[in-house]
Write a structure and sequence with these properties.
The chain has 5 domains: about 200 residues, P-loop containing nucleotide triphosphate hydrolases (Rossmann fold, 3-Layer(aba) Sandwich), CATH 3.40.50.300; about 190 residues, P-loop containing nucleotide triphosphate hydrolases (Rossmann fold, 3-Layer(aba) Sandwich), CATH 3.40.50; about 100 residues, Arc Repressor Mutant, subunit A (Orthogonal Bundle), CATH 1.10.10; about 80 residues, Orthogonal Bundle (DNA polymerase, domain 1), CATH 1.10.150; about 100 residues, Arc Repressor Mutant, subunit A. A 7-stranded parallel beta sheet has the order 3-4-2-5-6-1-7, sandwiched between helices. It has a 6-stranded parallel beta sheet with strand order 8-13-12-9-11-10. The protein has a two-stranded antiparallel sheet with strand order 14-17. By secondary structure, the protein is of the alpha/beta class. The longest helix is centred in the last third of the chain and has 21 residues. The termini are far apart.
Length: about 725
């Protein structure tokens, strides 16, 4: 079939309402209509879908579009039916979500020749009854969307995609168009080989998205930073990606509690809920969707203004594609990713136990991501180079590294010292152990291996242990060192590292680029604890600690009982001068503010006045720990002195879950009297010992420290209950 340019543009206007094609579209469409194979590499927002939708509408027969996601199919089918009004049968999808009646309708429209586009999942393509059906219809061409799923080196490999070529040959050959927004040269070659289309014309658009801003942030307090960012950009559409379903649910709930319209999206939700949540995002009934990577492939929402990665992705390709959903209309798109060492360790742990070949691929992809996250180079240059494209500018002016360049130093001597140390020890050890040897940290593990007797012990004592961790980490990125996943992160020297030791050269390493360990998912207070030294007024913080020490001495209490370190750090950031403002600080409820706050707000008020400080208009991140209905029920039940066992049963909670709820209520500043339950269920001497520990010896309210100090004879649940009693009677 042939069609001239004028006729093609007429059809473009008729079906889609556009007057002209985007760059590259017309050439691709003409090539496909001419009966030729095509491989299309086009960034998100470049208009890939039109490259097969328009040919399908003008060519004879039905185009089979192989697509990985049910949600994507529905979205595309709805869009086509919207373009071609009055012809519901012009586009269909065929997958496991359809009823028998719906499948029968699709079959009839196909056999009648009504359907021009049929979207199928690769699993549906392989079903025997579908293969027989497709043999009976005229197929104009096959379109393989998200073609990177074919490659084991792609960021979203799906084994069923590897069977597509054999199924096509069984049904009957026709032209093939493979499309993807992300493919390195290696992935591109793998896709073409697998589909048997090495002769295909390759259409490659630039991967540069000049309207996108790229930034990597340290993952020390991501929830607070995300809420602050969204509140600074109100009523704008955004996507937040998380690696786990649990984190998606938690974060969506936290956003809503803090006045941000958000919904979750992940594969664990039923299909109806996923579709509804997606539609609410597309129709702007909500501003933010919190999702796993299941969301977004092919979603046509041009005005997504920001994409945030709560967890760093497993590959650069995944990162590029997900960030590509921002600013598809060519206007502003802000892409922020939070990064921590702990997230990398989690991703490495996921690989353990997988086939070695799969591990090697995953490890290399992850190393590329780490190198990108920790690099001090222009992020745009790094991304484009990864996809085989050159970016000539030295400064893109639209990434964190170009706007805020990092300090560097020549680290060849330091790297040689690391390599010499690793070679001098017969066994392999983890990063932290090697860093401790070089910095001269004399701990029990060092002594047990007699590494304090090594010639290089303390050879780098002019630097901290964290400095040496950073050097080792950058050595891994530069492939001078290697970290084994199966052997739990033990460090070895590569051939390239040995060559470097023999012939050292200038090695520019980054200063002050230390990333935190990241959040501890099992500890609700970890984020707050990680905020120590996070930009507060150090002079004021020192004065507040002095005051706390003085008040504690006067009242005969441990300092942490007055206010925790996290509370004082918030005071040094927020400068509260009223009781209501003081309650905005971490761990300060109304009771604690009234009981201990007077001297603190007076000191802060005087400090602010004397130093002419402009106080920040900050906000509070409201917690989602308590469900309000449970909270009220628990408080009322304890006031009535009901047994905690009965309260737990009535609330549908396990005992430990009930104690979690009670602790959260108490830490928010509410005083509860559970003495009646303790008196009936815990021995008096045990209560006295635990209470005495918290009053006289404890340096914090840490349960772990309490259990270590009190010893194995004390039950953890008893310790928690007496701690609640102590906090209510003394701290609140």
């Amino acid at each position: 079939m042939e069609i001239d340019s004028a006729a093609l543009k007429s059809k473009l206007k008729e079906f889609f309402g556009f007057d002209s094609f985007k760059e590259g579209q017309e050439e691709i469409i003409t090539h496909l209509i001419g009966g030729n194979n095509a491989f299309v590499l086009m960034p998100t927002g470049g208009g890939k879908s039109l490259c097969y939708q328009l040919p399908a509408l003008v060519m004879e027969g039905t185009a089979i579009v192989i697509s990985p996601l049910i949600a994507l199919m529905k979205n595309q089918v709805d869009a086509i039916r919207g373009f071609v009004s009055g012809q519901e049968g012009i586009a269909h999808f065929l997958n496991s979500s359809l009823s028998k009646a719906q499948i029968s309708e699709v079959r009839q429209d196909l056999l009648d020749g009504t359907t021009k586009l049929l979207y199928v999942a690769p699993e549906s393509l392989t079903k025997a009854e579908n293969i027989e059906l497709f043999k009976e219809i005229r197929i104009s061409f096959y379109a393989i969307d998200e073609a990177h799923c074919i490659s084991e080196w792609g960021h979203d490999f799906r084994p069923e995609y590897r069977r597509i070529r054999s199924i096509i040959e069984e049904i009957g050959t026709a032209p093939i168009i493979a499309l993807t927004a992300t493919a390195t040269p290696k992935v591109q070659s793998d896709i073409q080989k697998n589909l048997g289309m090495m002769d295909a014309m390759v259409f490659k658009s630039s991967f540069n998205r000049p309207n996108l801003y790229y930034e990597i942030r340290d993952k020390s307090d991501p929830k607070r930073e995300i809420i602050k960012f969204i509140k600074q950009h109100p009523h704008r559409s955004g996507i937040i990606y998380c690696l786990s379903r649990k984190k998606v649910e938690e974060l969506a709930e936290l956003l809503n509690v803090n006045g941000i319209r958000a919904l979750p999206y992940h594969a664990g939700l039923d299909a109806k809920t996923r579709a509804e949540n997606q539609d609410m995002f597309l129709s702007e009934e909500i501003d933010v969707i919190v999702a796993t990577i299941a969301f977004g492939m092919g979603i046509d929402k041009p005005d997504v203004r920001f994409v945030i990665h709560y967890d760093i992705p497993k590959s650069i390709e995944g990162y590029y594609q997900e960030t590509g959903r921002a600013g598809r209309d060519g206007k502003e798109g802000i892409c922020i990713a939070f990064y921590s060492y702990k997230d990398i360790l989690k991703l490495e742990k996921f690989m353990q136990g997988k086939p070695i070949a799969e591990q090697e691929i995953g490890k290399q992809l992850l190393q590329e991501t780490v190198a990108y996250a920790e690099s001090n180079q222009c992020r745009r240059k790094l991304l484009l180079n990864y996809f085989g494209e050159t970016y000539d500018k030295d400064n893109c002016g639209s990434c964190d590294n170009c706007i805020h360049p990092k300090k560097q130093f020549d680290g060849q001597e330091e790297m040689c010292l690391v390599i010499e140390l690793i070679r001098s020890i017969p066994e392999h050890f983890k990063t932290e152990h090697l860093a401790n040897i070089l910095s001269g940290t004399d701990n029990s593990l060092i002594k047990s291996y007699h590494h304090d007797r090594l010639e290089l012990f303390g050879a780098g004592s002019n630097h901290t242990m964290k400095f040496w961790c950073a050097v080792i980490h950058q050595g891994i990125i530069l492939r001078l060192l290697d970290k084994e996943i199966e052997s739990y992160g033990l460090i070895s020297v590569t051939e390239k590292g040995l060559e470097f030791l023999d012939h050292p050269y200038t090695l520019m390493l980054t200063e002050e680029r230390e990333f935190s360990e990241g959040e501890d998912d099992d500890d609700e207070n970890a984020a707050a604890a990680n905020r120590g030294g996070g930009g507060g007024d150090t002079m004021l913080l020192s004065m507040l600690k002095d005051l706390r020490r003085s008040v504690a001495r006067r009242l005969g209490l441990q300092p942490w009982v007055i206010f925790s370190d996290a509370s004082l750090e918030d005071m040094s950031i927020l400068y509260p001068v009223t009781y209501d403002e003081l309650k905005n600080c971490q761990g300060v409820g109304d009771g604690k503010a009234r009981k201990f706050g007077k001297e603190f707000i007076e000191l802060i008020g005087k400090y602010v006045q004397e130093n002419e400080i402009d106080r920040p208009d900050d906000f509070v991140v409201k917690s989602t720990v308590n469900k309000s209905a449970n909270k009220v029920f628990i408080i009322q039940s304890i006031d009535r002195k009901l047994s905690l066992d009965d309260i737990a049963d009535a609330a549908g909670l396990e005992m430990d879950e009930l104690i979690d709820e009670i602790e959260a209520i108490v830490y928010s500043g509410t005083r509860l009297d559970i003495g009646y339950y303790i008196n009936e269920n815990i021995d008096d001497d045990t209560v006295a010992d635990i209470y005495g520990y918290f009053r006289e010896d404890a340096e914090s309210d840490s349960l772990q420290e309490a259990m270590e100090e009190l010893g194995p004879d004390y039950d953890e649940r008893d310790v928690r209950l007496v701690r609640i009693k102590f906090l209510c009677e003394v701290a609140n």
